[in-house]
Specification:
about 15% strand, about 280 residues, single chain, 7-stranded mixed sheet, alpha/beta, globular
Length: about 280
Amino acid sequence: MSSGDQHDLGRALRELRSASGLTGATVARRASMSAGKLSKIENGRILPSVVDVELVLTALEVSAEAKAEFLRAARAAVTESTAWRTLRRAGPWKHQQAIRAIESQTQHLRLFQGQAIPGLLQTPDYISAIFSRRPELLPETKAKTVAARLERQSALYQAERSFDFLICEHVLRWLMCDPRAMAVQLDRLISLSRLPNVSIGVIPLNRRMPDFPMTCFVIHDDRLVVIETFHAEVATRDTKDIATYLDIFGRFAEVALYGVEMCELVEHIRDEFLTQRESG
């Protein structure tokens, strides 16, 4: 998008907000962003991400039809990449809040993980271990980030929404924190799998893989896919991309273990961690 498009998009968002009668502070709060950031977007000083536009339009209570038309008219980027260093500079807890805002608009969430236990399923000790890795966070920043991730988990108890998780077995075996904490984390997976609106599948090592588990991704309904790479978070609304990830998710789901079989495998891995602790 050119600088002219950037200015046009910001001006269009400002005009929408003015027509709504809402103040910038109110819209910014609803959109989980600072008033300063919203002002920069409206004045064309920064290019908003796809997620930023979605959040602002939702804060303005724009209808789904008008929202889709506005995004097309504004020539918003279909696919974008945001470097992790950029998100860290803005404050990792703010990123967790932005994720929560997007999740709050999602009725059916599908998540594939080949790197770590999904954030929505993590225990406090596991979250702390994740955010203790490089680059190190200041204690206050880490505490706020852990708290923000835990706040997201309340969504699991909203019965009208559904969550499908696929986790590779090797993820459950990686020692992300001490063995006892890992055992507690695996117990939590089993417990959450019993929620009526939560499905947890584990892809075992002894089954033929339908594809390479190259990266983790989350599908929000049939409208947005967010993919994580080593250097960036990539968001796409391209219908063909979304169809590709839905297909990938479905093929991995076909080889996953669920229910009793899943629980037995997770319990076995948990017991191995407990044995490690005893022998240590």
